[in-house]
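Structure, all two chains, one model.
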Amino acid sequence: MDVGQLQRQFIDYTASLFREEWRGFLDDQFTQLRKLQDENNPDFVFEVVSLFFDDSEKLVNNMAKALEQPTVEFKQVDAHVHQFKGSSSSIGAHRVKNVCVAFRSFCEQQNIDGCKRCLQQLKHEYSLLKSKLETLFRLEQQIMAAGGSIPMVE
Amino acid sequence: MERSAVLSRRSMPEEVGGFDLSPVQSEEAAHVLAVDDSLVDRKVIERLLKIFSCKVTAVDSGRRALQLLGLDEDRTSAGFDVKGLKVDLIITDYCMPGMNGYELLKKIKESSTFRQTPVVIMSSEHILARIERCLEEGAEDFIVKPVKLSDVKRLRDYMTREDRDGNESRGINKRKLGDACDVSPSLSSPPPPPPPPSNSSSPPSNSSSLPSISSSPSSRSAPSSPTSLDSPTRRLKASSCD
């Protein structure tokens, strides 16, 4: 594939992640992060996203453990969800963040079934996002390997 | 995720995100102390500040921040001559385990060395009472997360102005809170905004005042010093409210 085709593919794929504003995988914050990348910090987005996914693993495990306790400490679960909501918001992970919002209200209601459902949804959304972003980063690598530059998609 | 070595990307832009990157007018780069328990957020805020040519020290707790500033009571009482860091701006998250941003703000404002240093609070939760309380305690500004380039650009303006005037610019940048939107409920029946999370064993001492104030989310008492400048609270987006 030539650079032009790769770049077009990149643009289309990126746009698809933002599509349907309320159900988009990504929101404007992701675009903000892209703007922080430059020649001297070429991997900034990749690094932040990687930190996010490492963090996510830990938080999801903590949430699962907390929900398995004989007496569930909802405040503790909520604290983890709050953290997850914060970091997902910071990278523009729109759908993940929305699940966290719902999750927090179930914690407030001390609704264990609601919490467990949200946890499953969270795991689903974040692994979906992870594979989407991996595809995106792979496209970027292909473009650069072919000598092209990464288009800025707004 | 895997990543092989990358080739050089597009050439260094003269502008990033449409903002002028000319360095701050003072001779030295401004030094910012950033406090946030989230690793992701520390990385983002650090990059944002560096884009505006700031030197950044990022720490993960209020306690650590106080230590660096030489304000940690334990250290000073032990007789250490701790020469605190020179900082031009302190930017801190509100919700942190242990000491929250408000408590850190208070400690800073109580100190003779740092009470003039501008302190900015960041929070993902847009709670009017919280914003008011922080501003009343002396915070320079309140940023609703996620933090964007435009937020940090505004901060740079404080530091530049102070360098030039040598005056406290607090009054100029007070937010017009009357314009702020309410906390928008994410459900059809508005839940009370959640209290700031912390380790379950040690809730922040000031959290008791929150539930009673925020149980009526439609209250909008504006403070008495409004300005018409760009308000961080106007950045409220319906989809990102709790």
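The longest strand of chain B covers residues 31-35.
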